[in-house]
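I am writing to request your help with a piece of structural work I have in hand. Thank you for your consideration; the sequence and its tokens are set out here:
=====
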Amino acid sequence: MAVLRSVKGGAPDRVDGFELAYVTRDGEQARVALAEAWSLRLDRAEPVRRFASYRGHRHLPGRWWSATDQRHVGYESWLERDHLAAFDFDPEVVAIASQPFWLFWTSEAGKTRSHAPDYFLRRGAGSRECATRAGYGAGSCSR
């Protein structure tokens, strides 16, 4: 069973070797070192990939009208939609973005890896956090 979890903690001690790619306001892809990404407004970024829907698809993707953001926020399954609704009703959450960036790194075996977190949240106190389904092994992206 897939479970969505929030990954919390401080900024990682070691960020070299990690890159972050996101979509700019002009619709272009930008890629920066992770250490340079802390000042980006990722909570307003557009998704880095589309939410596919096709006949026979086992998941039910869609868009949720977020009262928090006053815009539609995408989801890829009803499980993600349920968590999105919970984020939307959480008074501490002030911004939500769906799959706002790709994180790229090289594994110890030398293979290029990538991951797009399901959600990026900004809280009223200014902290930021990623939420992703369990099992990806994603590290912290909180600050």
Notes: The beta strands are 4-7, 19-23, 29-33, 62-66, 71-75, 93-98, 102-106, 112-115, 119-123, 128-133. The first strand starts at residue 4 and ends at 7. The longest helix spans residues 78-89. The chain is about 10% helix and 35% strand.
